[in-house]
Amino acid sequence: MKTFYVTTPIYYVNSFPHLGHLYSTLVADTLARYKRQCGYDTFFLTGTDEHGQNIERIARERGVTPQAHCDEMAEAFKGMIRDFGLEPNYFIRTSDASHHRGAQALWRRVREAGYIYKGQYEGWFCPACAEFKEEEEPGRPPLCELHNRLAERVAEESYFFRLSAFQDRLLAFYRENPECVRPASRYNEVVSFVKSGLKDLSISRVSVRWGVPVPEDPQHTMYVWFDALSNYITALGWGNEGEHLRAAGISEGSIFERYWPADVHIVGKDILRFHAVYWPAFLMAAGLPLPRTVYAHGMWLSGGRKMSKTLGNVIDLAVLRRFFSRDVVRYFCLREMVFGEDADFTYGALIERANADLADGLGNLAHRTLTMVQRFCAGSLPEISAKAWGGYEEELRATVEATIRAFVAEFEAYNFSRALEVAWGLIARGDKYLSDMKPWDRARRPEERARVETVLAVVVRVLRVLAVLLAPVLPETMRALWAQLGLAGEPARVNPLALEFEAPMAGVRIGEVKPLFPRMEKEGIMAEIESHSRLEASPSSWITIEEFARVDLRAGTVVFAEKVAGADKLLRLLVDIGETEPRQVVAGIAPYYRPEELVGRKVILVANLQPRKVRGIESRGMVLAAVVGPEERPVLAGFVEDVPSGARLR
Ligand code: MSP
After folding, report:
1. What is the distance in A from the centroid of ligand 1 to the CA of 266?
2. Helices 364-377 and 416-437: crossing angle, nearest 10°?
């Protein structure tokens, strides 16, 4: 039996799951369902990436052990999988003992092959990304754009991976395997990155404890990406006894030979380099086969920007689950985003698509057809009659067969949104056929009986084909449609590669006919989402009292204010917060406040914000303001009663 191995990235446990996380898993789940349907012995892996300095720090800040933090977060990700009905074969956690053993085995293999050596690393490191950053100006810490924080200087003994030795081998591999990185634009990016030269990679830290200890030198902890990437093989039992697989009811200890190399690693484009450069190099060094494809998808944006907790624009999964069905979310994600490109997420677009494509499109075609089968055929699927079969029917059958071929081809090429467009082309054809043939009119004339039955039998076959093709995308509703059609078994068990228009269906009694997708009232639901998001902050946005207490808020008095030369929006303020010197702060409020009206005014200052340079001026804090109206006008926060400068806010 042919096998198929698909993975998602394992999720950092530094934030609760949001739509971006769901998306990688949802795509992998859809692919896995499709391949299972096509008869492949399929393994779909997901899990959590739990190690590193960042996690150590978050746990410390929360006052819990790293393990306790990770246990809680792993549950949150498992919860996402349950809530959205995703069906991975295994969920790996990098804190599992079996994973540790596997990662150490990989390290030993690479070391024994001569590709790991000890040296001294000095560089700029962003703990939030767990990544070293390039120095831009000599001696100055680079700013991590993603986390809006300055990188930290790190100098320590470190093990290095001889990445530089793999430049030519990687380039040869890319040349011989043009599908190893997809889409093509990403392939080109990776090739030119490698062509520009590869430096050896620091792959251990002595200052981090929470991670996989380096074998034979446990003072060192593995660099989190060496550890994390190896999950794709340790999960299959490579380098360990596979006891985790037995415990999960996957009876064989190791299934590595069965599934490796992976058919596809689904990843976001932000982590492509790790998967398309470092990971193949580690595997080459260990003498292991390389994954067939790394597919990099785009980012879900919200309000035009990448979703992030800091920006506060993440799409909350609890809101999605509360207001939308799982299948609607799946459909929207796969239809709206051209796989590989970025897309904007809005609830409005989700509701519009759900109404137009699902309720009015697929749902309506199924409902009106089956209602007519009830009314005109006494609830039994009718037969095609040779005498009513004409050119129109012949054309429709050809369309169905072309749709099956095109849908499968697009799916195989990871063009999910195109595949769905193709399927919806068939829905439109089915609709038009019904409107042209008007079986409801003909049903009044007994001599047209064969014609009415044939028309309905043709559309019922269209629905059957759609149920099979769409089963990986809409598993629950297509199962429901199958039952309404009165068919035995499940659409997920019908192989789309062998699917045909013809099917013995006549005489089958249909099931209870119900709308598959309710229409949604856009304005009402949008308003409900809005008030829900405001009133019920979900657990993913809660912070603990300890986390809040880390923000040092002070009452301050503005003692000086002036415009920043050459910047329309900025004012330079000096704010007295009871320290020996007033604080210099740069604030983007110039269009709304004149400098002279600010002097003497009480403000609230975030006093322990990391200093940063704005237009060459060091800003040591931030004044708080409400953001009002669509133009986001800042209104400074202050006090009604008098407070001394320096008073703490709690
Ligand atoms: N832990 C690493 C992966 C290690 S794999 C050996 C990691 N984790 S992550 O939790 O930060 O991201 C997991 C996946 O979610 C990535 O593929 C990332 O691209 C994806 N997404 C996170 N935010 C996203 C969007 N806003 N949109 C789409 N996917 C994005 O990286």
Report:
1. 10
2. 40
- Ligand 1 contacts (CB < 6 A) are 9-12, 20-21, 23-24, 49, 228-229, 231, 267-268, 270-271, 299-300, 306-307
- Determine the angle formed by the axes of helices 449-470 and 475-484, rounding to 10 degrees: 150
pLDDT averaged over every residue in the chain? 93
Kindly state which CATH superfamily the domain 340-498 is placed in: Isoleucyl-tRNA Synthetase; Domain 1 (1.10.730.10)
- Compute the distance between CA of residue 479 and CA of residue 361 in angstroms, rounded to an integer: 17
Q: Domain 3-297 adopts which CATH fold?
A: Rossmann fold (3.40.50)
Residue 147's Cβ-side half-sphere holds a number of Cα atoms within 13 Å equal to 17
Indicate the domain borders of the chain: 3-297, 340-498, 546-649
Among protein residues, the one whose CA lies closest to atom 29 of ligand 1:
20
**Residues with catalytic roles:** 18, 21, 126, 129, 144, 147, 306, 309
Task: Name the residue of 6, 12, 337 to mutate for ligand 1: max ligand atoms within 8 A of Cβ.
Answer: 12
Query: What's the pLDDT score for residue 310?
Result: 66
pLDDT for 334-351, tens place per residue? 999 999 999 999 999 999
User: What is the rounded distance in angstroms from the CA atom of residue 435 to the CA atom of residue 423?
Assistant: 19
Mean pLDDT of 381-386: 93
Predicted confidence (pLDDT) at residue 538 exceeds the cutoff of 90: no
Please give the Cα distance from 274 to 216 (Å, whole number).
Answer: 26
Centroid of ligand 1 to alpha carbon of 135 (angstroms): 25
pLDDT score at 277: 98
Q: Residue 51 — pLDDT band, cuts 50, 70, 90?
A: very high
Residue type, 238: W
C-alpha neighbours within 13 Å on the C-beta side of residue 428: 9
Q: Are 58 and 15 in contact (CB under 8 A)?
A: no
The predicted-structure confidence for 499-514, as pLDDT tens digits, reads as follows 999 888 888 999 999 9
Of 94, 271, 277, the residue with max ligand 1 atoms within 8 A of its CB, to mutate for a pocket test, comes to 271
Which H or E run contains 270? none
Gap between the terminal Cα atoms of the chain: 64
Note whether 3-297 and 340-498 share their fold: no
Q: Residue 168 has what pLDDT?
A: 97
Distance of alpha carbon 445 from its chain centroid, rounded?
A: 55
- Report the atom number in ligand 1 closest to the C-alpha of 231: 6
For 324-415, where are the alpha helices, taking DSSP H only?
326-336, 347-353, 364-377, 391-412
Which segments of 95-139 are extended strands (E)? 116-126, 131-133
Task: Indicate whether this model's pTM tops 0.85.
Answer: no
Query: For residue 150, what are the β-bridge partners?
Result: 143
| Homologous superfamily of domain range 546-649 | Nucleic acid-binding proteins (2.40.50.140)
The two structure tokens encoding residue 419? 């595949």
